[in-house]
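Input/output pair, single chain:
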Amino acid sequence: MTITKRDDTSMAEQNAEIRRWAEVNGLTVGSRFGEQRDVVERVAPRVPVVEVTVRIDEDVYEAAMLRATYDGYDNASEVVEAALREWARGY
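Output:
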């Protein structure tokens, strides 16, 4: 993948995609509890939100995508998810 420039629109689209992925995978309060979102938000205290920005140079990205093909991942989002899991475990 060749990255020619960064712009706010593409970053906003990437952030929206990450948020959608997090909601689908139960990483937000509302989606974790399904239909009871309003109840949970009223009862549970709001916690600070932590945003993480990851910058990967092109060579590292290509290596990760190559590894992903061997590990059976279908897209870049799955690769990033797996890498974040490994990082969180301290590998």
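The chain has two domains: 7-50, 54-91. DSSP finds five helices and no strands in the chain.
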